[in-house]
Design goal:
With 128 residues, the chain is an alpha/beta fold.
């Protein structure tokens, strides 16, 4: 009887041992979304499970460009990115495209996408 219990214990440990040592798989990375307050609009950074990136809008120009680029770069750093794969400018208002030059001086941008020609009068495009 003792021999049977001993062999049974060895069998259970040989099956359970390796399973107990195996670590569970890390959860799959989900879609990360960073909404960046650029005071007048939002810049939004999307990082899908593939690790690519899409940034929509770059914030204000002028004196606010440094501030907005700092905020976007904080999100880029939090996401662990070394470049922006796709930058989309939704429209030609200053709070949506104004920070583009400052941001592009700080991080490579692989592809730039915009909606095409401006259809608003020039004064409206640079207002809020």
């Amino acid at each position: 009887m003792r021999a049977s219990i001993g062999w049974l214990s060895i069998l259970v440990l040989s099956v359970a041992g390796p399973a107990a040592q195996t670590r569970p798989a890390a959860p799959a990375r989900g879609l990360d979304i960073y909404v960046v307050d650029v005071e007048g609009g939002n810049a939004t950074l999307f990082v899908p499970p593939s690790g690519g990136s899409v940034l929509i809008d770059t914030g204000n120009g002028g004196a606010a460009a440094v501030r907005d680029a700092d905020r976007i770069m904080a999100a880029v750093k939090a996401a662990g990115l070394t470049q922006i794969d796709h930058l989309i400018t939704t429209h030609w208002h200053g709070d949506h495209f104004g920070g583009m030059a400052e941001l592009s001086s700080r991080i490579p941008i692989a592809e730039y996408i915009d909606h095409g020609a401006n259809v608003q009068p020039a004064a409206a495009a640079f207002g809020a």
